[in-house]
Amino acid sequence: MLLETSKGNRMRWLAPLGGIGLVVVLAGGAQPSRAEGQVVVEFFTSQGCSTCPPADAIFSDLAKMPGVIALALHVDYWDYLGWKDPFGKPEHTDRQRGYARAQQERTIYTPQMIVQGQDIVKGHEEATILERIAAHGSEPAPVEVVLSRDPGGLEIALSLSEGAVGLAEVHVVEYSPEEPMTVEGGENNGYHHVFANVVTQWSTFALWDGASPVELRYEAPLGEHVAVLVQKPGNGAMLAGARLP
After folding, report:
1. Which domain, by its residues, includes 24?
2. How many domains does the structure of the chain reveal?
C-alpha cells in the first residue's frame, strides 16, 4: 500500500531529550550486555494493510535471527479501512515519513523494512532483506553499546571502535516479543498472527557528540524487553544497537 508524503573529562557534549531523566555516570553495577554486529531492522506494517501478512511472516523469522534487532512499528494511516490497528501509533508514521524525507522519497507504504537506517526495502522482498542484513552484519560497528539495568532504570555505556563518528541520537525502545491477535474487521478480517517485536514505546533519549566515550543513565520504568539504538540525526545511518534481555 502507498501513502503520499512530502520530500523534503569523558563527554564533550550531550543533551537530554524528551523529558526523560538523564544522568552522566562513571560506572555501572549490574551485569552488562555487549552488542557485537547487531543489525537493526525496522518494520513498518499495519493490521489494516491487505498486503502485509506475507511480510509479517518474514519479519517473525527475522525477529528470531541472531545478530538482528528487529522492531515492528505499526502505523496508523490504514485505520480508516475498517480495522484500527491496536499497535498503530502516529509517532511510528512520523518516523517512517522521516526516512522518506531523508531518502528523498515521495511516498511511504506498508509493508516496508528499513535495514540499518539506510536501506529501504519492500517488506515481502525476503532475499533482498537478508542480503542487506548480511552486508551490514559483515561491517564492524563504529560504536560499541554496553547495557546494564537495575530496578530504577538503565545504564548505557557508549564507546568508539576506531574514531569519532559525529553527532548521534540515542534511542531507547521498548517492545513486546509476541502479541497474538485475530483481526476482526477491514481488509484482513479473520487474519490471525502472532505479531513479533511490537514496539510499545520509543524515546529519543539524548544527543551524543560521538567524539569521546560516555556513560549515561536512563531513569524511567522499563519493560522486560528493551533496545538501545545509536543513529545519525535526521533518520540517518544506524551506528550501533544493543538489547536486553
Report:
1. 2-8+10-244
2. 1
- DSSP conformation letters of 27-80: ---SPPEE--S-EEEEEEE-TT-TT-HHHHHHHHHHTTSTTEEEEEEE-STTGG
The model carries a pTM of: 0.88
Grid cell listed for 110: 506498508
How does pLDDT run across 138-150, given as a tens digit for each residue?
999 999 999 999 8
- CATH label of the domain that carries residue 52: 3.40.30.10
**Cis peptide leading into 140, omega within 30 of 0?**
no
